[in-house]
């Protein structure tokens, strides 16, 4: 079977076939490689909008400045923390929701629709909703809840800005994780569950020994896709804290370099660092998740 | 004592009555086979016994204790599924030991039991493989081993051999039967293959549309089917049925004659056209079309001096007629009327 496929693939890419593919490939290359090349060029140049005259090749000095700047390491750490918290919260919560929705729940169709809904709310809108309606320390819902129990209100964004942002983002990604895991749970063989029941396995044992291994691959997919998007979390930071060392991630650092300090060279360098960082992270995470759950 | 007793066990799915007030005693230590056509509720009844479905009404006694409210695991029964339902992410060793592991047995005991069962089923070379890397027969044995490890009160098999080829199936039949006898464990075995039922069972229960049609030993059921349905279902090739005048002669609406009791004999009284002849080496079957329209099969014809298309005469062996009434129930063998020998075919 594999041989057949391989033969067909080869014949596609031989002679005139390859020639016919060329325009599309060239277009793709131009669209993806050109911006990368331009960014690399900028990152190696002295390109500041406040000093339009000063330009030219400056080697790696943009990178050196970036790494040396007091904002860089916190931004890197914040990015990692944000990804870690959002992944953990959205996968744990998504798994919980998926398990509930997989069972016989009354009004399952409606519930599923509700679960998906956060996905349809635009990031800036959901961040504003959370900031002004839920987490607001005076009139927010959480403050009201705290007052109900006689507790002092918690000022989320001044005391735990990164965690607050992570919560908002996790809420947005919860439906994605829940849906992917739910579809995978639904493909779980009913007889396997019954065999385990007869073997005396508790619900927890079935989850640990059967469902989690079954979900290893979908969880790896969720981790990979979420990581790719979470590297670039931006709107939620802009509309809640507006930056600051405690909540600036790499994407926001690029923005503040380029649009607040008008330093295109440094912004490009930060962007490229983010790209490399994202790739390393993705490879590492997929491997780790795959290994730990398959064992 | 591990007798299983069903009293009026009823189960509905919506309006559909799947098992209808079933009364049944599964004898301790015996091999009981549930047999019946597709969709008659065999699997459902097995799942009710296992506790995978809830009984709507009726009682289920295991060892004399009402088990209707007992969890599947606590009933102490083990089930072998048609799809094997092996845990795909675990090795054979982990599959076999899973029940003991979740019961938190000591490691040494788990290892020992696992090895022992693997030994019994010739699975030792495969202990470290995943189910995906096993053949169908090996998977089947792992599924049986997984049930065995728990030392259950009874085995429940749901068509365990239907995914295997004919040769392996015949081999596994013997192996399962040997294992069951060796361990003396009660077994319920579901199949829709009557040959499997006949060869394996101590006791056969024939189901039809959610009811027990007849229960008894294979010999009893073969010799004295309680209804036309059972008569036609058990035995291969199936029983020949004749209606009309011939049946009326026997005081029945329909009579049934097994192929081995139908002889081709110039002195016979039933005319039929030979349609096809099957030689199977040790056996031969002649397919015939009776003049009255029925298709008949005769078995083991000694001298085959005829061909397709020929018209021959058939004779029913004495005492071999099964009589059925208008409701297709079997009628008791008639007392011989004085002066008349009803076992002599005299049409
Ligand atoms: N979960 C269910 N919901 C509704 N109807 C069901 C369900 N399970 C089984 N049935 C119905 O109950 C009847 C008996 O099914 P069951 O699986 O017990 O048949 P079976 O005798 O095992 O047949 P087979 O030999 O084909 O396996 C069928 O008509 C089936 O459609
Ligand atoms: Mg079935």
Oligomer: heterodimer
Q: Which descriptor suits the 3D outline of chain B?
A: globular
H and E string of chain B: EEEHEEEHHHEHEHEEHHEHEEEEEEE
Number of helices of chain B: 9
Rg over alpha carbons of chain A: 24 Å
Identify every distinct bound molecule in the structure, by name, code or SMILES: adenosine-5'-triphosphate, magnesium ion
Distance between the termini of chain A: 29 Å
Radius of gyration of chain B: 24 Å
Task: Kindly identify the CATH topology of one domain in chain A.
Answer: MetI-like fold
Helix content of chain A: over 70%
Q: What form of chain A results from the Cα inertia axes?
A: globular
Mean pLDDT of chain A: 86
Instruction: Considering residues with a beta carbon less than 8 A from a beta carbon on another chain, report the largest interface and each chain's count.
Output: A-B, 18 and 22 residues
**Topology order of chain A in helix (H) and strand (E) letters:** HHHHHHHHHHHHHH
The biggest sheet of chain B amounts to: 6 strands, mixed
Question: Can you describe what's shown?
Answer:
The complex is a heterodimer of chains A (295) and B (347). Chain A is mostly helical and 295 residues long. Chain A has a domain at 72-247: MetI-like fold (Orthogonal Bundle). Helix content of chain A is 75%, strand content 0%. Chain A contains 14 helices and no strands. In chain A, α4 crosses α11. Chain A is globular, with a radius of gyration of 24 Å. The relative contact order of chain A is 0.13. The model of chain A is unreliable at 1-7 (pLDDT under 50). In chain B, 26% of the residues lie in helices and 29% in strands. Chain B has helices at 42-50, 92-102, 107-120, 136-149, 166-183, 194-200, 218-223, 228-233, 244-249, and strands spanning 4-13, 16-26, 31-35, 57-62, 65-66, 77-80, 154-158, 186-191, 203-208, 211-216, 240-242, 254-257, 262-264, 270-279, 284-290, 295-299, 311-316, 322-324. In chain B, the strands form 4 sheets. In chain B, strands 6-7-8-3-9-10 form a 6-stranded mixed sheet, sandwiched between helices. Chain B has a 5-stranded antiparallel sheet with strand order 13-17-14-15-16, with no helix packed on it. In chain B, β7 (154-158), α5 (166-183) and β8 form a beta-alpha-beta unit. The N and C termini of chain B lie far apart (54 Å). Mean pLDDT of chain B is 89; it is low at 337-347. The interface between A and B is medium-sized, with 18 and 22 residues. The structure holds adenosine-5'-triphosphate and magnesium ion (MG). The site of adenosine-5'-triphosphate (ATP) has 12 residues of chain B, from β2 and α1.
């Amino acid at each position: 079977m594999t041989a057949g496929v391989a033969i067909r693939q080869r014949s596609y890419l031989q002679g005139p076939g390859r020639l016919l593919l060329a325009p599309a490939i060239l277009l793709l290359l131009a669209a993806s490689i050109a911006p990368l090349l331009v960014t690399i060029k900028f990152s190696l140049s002295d390109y500041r909008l406040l000093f339009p005259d000063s330009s030219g090749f400056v080697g790696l000095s943009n990178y050196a400045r970036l790494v040396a700047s007091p904002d860089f390491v916190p931004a890197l750490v914040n990015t990692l923390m944000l990804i870690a918290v959002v992944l953990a919260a959205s996968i744990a919560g998504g798994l919980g929701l998926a398990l509930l929705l997989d069972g016989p729940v009354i009004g399952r169709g409606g519930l599923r629709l509700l679960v998906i809904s956060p996905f349809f709310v635009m990031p800036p809108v959901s961040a504003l909703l959370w900031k002004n309606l839920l987490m607001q320390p005076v009139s927010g819902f959480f403050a009201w809840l705290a007052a109900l129990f006689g507790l002092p209100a918690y000022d989320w964004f001044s005391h735990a800005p990164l965690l607050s942002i992570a919560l908002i983002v996790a809420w947005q990604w919860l439906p994605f994780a829940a849906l992917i895991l739910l579809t995978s749970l639904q493909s779980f063989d009913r007889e396997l569950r019954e065999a385990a029941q007869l073997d005396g396995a508790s619900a927890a044992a079935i989850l640990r020994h059967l469902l989690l291994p079954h979900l290893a691959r979908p969880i790896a997919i969720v981790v990979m896709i979420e990581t790719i998007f979470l590297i670039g979390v931006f709107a939620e930071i802009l509309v809640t804290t507006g930056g600051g060392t405690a909540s600036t991630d790499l994407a926001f650092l690029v923005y503040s370099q380029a649009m607040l300090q008008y330093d295109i060279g440094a912004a490009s360098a930060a962007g490229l660092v983010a790209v490399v960082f994202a790739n390393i992270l993705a490879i590492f995470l997929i491997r780790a998740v795959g290994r730990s759950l398959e064992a | 004592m591990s007798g299983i007793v069903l009293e009026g066990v009823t189960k509905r799915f919506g309006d559909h009555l799947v098992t209808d007030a079933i009364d049944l005693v599964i004898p301790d230590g015996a091999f009981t086979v549930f047999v019946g056509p597709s969709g008659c509720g065999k699997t459902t009844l097995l799942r009710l016994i296992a506790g995978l479905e809830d009984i709507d009404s009726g009682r289920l006694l295991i060892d004399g204790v009402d088990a209707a409210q007992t969890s599947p695991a606590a009933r102490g029964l083990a089930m072998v599924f048609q799809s094997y339902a092996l845990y795909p992410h675990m090795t054979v060793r982990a599959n076999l030991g899973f029940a003991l592991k979740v019961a938190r047995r000591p490691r040494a005991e788990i290892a020992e039991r696992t090895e022992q069962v693997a030994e019994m089923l010739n699975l030792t070379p495969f202990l470290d493989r995943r189910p995906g890397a096993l053949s169908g027969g090996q998977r089947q044995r792992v599924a049986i081993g997984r049930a065995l490890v728990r030392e259950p009160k009874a085995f429940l098999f749901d068509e365990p051999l239907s995914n295997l080829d004919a040769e392996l199936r015949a081999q596994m039949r013997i192996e399962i039967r040997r294992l069951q006898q060796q361990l003396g464990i009660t077994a319920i075995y579901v199949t829709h293959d009557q040959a499997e039922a006949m060869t394996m069972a101590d006791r056969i229960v024939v189901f039809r549309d959610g009811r027990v049609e007849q229960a008894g030993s294979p010999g009893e059921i073969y010799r004295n089917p309680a209804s036309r349905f059972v008569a036609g279902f058990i035995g291969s090739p199936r029983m020949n049925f004749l209606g009309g005048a011939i049946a009326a002669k026997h005081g029945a609406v329909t009579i049934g004659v097994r192929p081995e009791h139908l002889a081709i004999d110039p002195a016979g009284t039933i005319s039929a056209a030979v349609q096809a002849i099957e030689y199977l080496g040790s056996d031969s079957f002649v397919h015939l079309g009776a003049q009255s329209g029925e298709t008949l099969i005769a078995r083991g014809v000694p001298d085959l001096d005829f061909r397709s298309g020929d018209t021959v005469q058939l004779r029913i062996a004495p005492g071999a007629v099964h009589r059925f009434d208008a409701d297709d129930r079997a009628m008791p063998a008639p007392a011989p009327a004085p002066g008349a020998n009803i076992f002599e075919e005299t049409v």
